[in-house]
């Protein structure tokens, strides 16, 4: 599952992203030693809230129909409903702040592999193509957490179909993954990883446009203390 693109799963939200000058996508996974855990997915457009507040008053802009707050909330509710029906997923909740344009979905999983196909399936339902792929796994015996990421050429192809003014929106967009653990981290395979002072959290931040163009890889293998 490519959690970082979960937020673009909803077409109205994707349009709002195109109308924003800056946004952040944040993926947080908290993993327990027994393999269960929690996920928090956030899209933060607060840095563009003044511009977005003006845009939301319009019917359309740059050839795109501007979705209403009610439509955005509807898409968020539908995503929550889908997650509630997903195997191994529970405690699904969402929050939305349309004054600051921040939305978050949280849920728990029985096994980290339960989240692998969620984004792919949601995107398929919305007929959004050209997505990169990720899969997650955790070996309880060796206490190794892995994220395998693979860029696909169609992601760049779909991106290149956008108008130049729409591509420019992604220039300042960032994706951040944060993984938290009960046990200290011994090693990480991705050199771009940042380890917290407690040694129980790993953060990796990158440009979304670099991800789309395949210039960075967010794969990571994290070895925990046994």
Structural key phrases:
globular; 7 helices; single chain; 226 residues; 13 strands; four-stranded antiparallel beta sheet; 34% strand
In short:
With 226 residues, this protein is α+β, with helices and mostly antiparallel strands. The protein has seven helices and 13 strands.
Q: What would you say this structure looks like, in words?
A:
By secondary structure, the protein is of the alpha+beta class. It has one domain (3-224). The chain contains seven helices and 13 strands. The chain has helices at residues 11-18, 49-55, 69-84, 118-125, 153-160, 164-167, 208-212; strands spanning 24-31, 37-44, 60-61, 64-65, 89-97, 102-109, 133-139, 144-150, 174-181, 185-188, 194-195, 201-207, 220-224. The strands form three sheets. Strands 5-6-2-1-9-12-11 form a seven-stranded mixed beta sheet. A four-stranded antiparallel beta sheet has the order 7-8-13-10, with no helix packed on it. It has a two-stranded antiparallel ribbon with strand order 3-4.
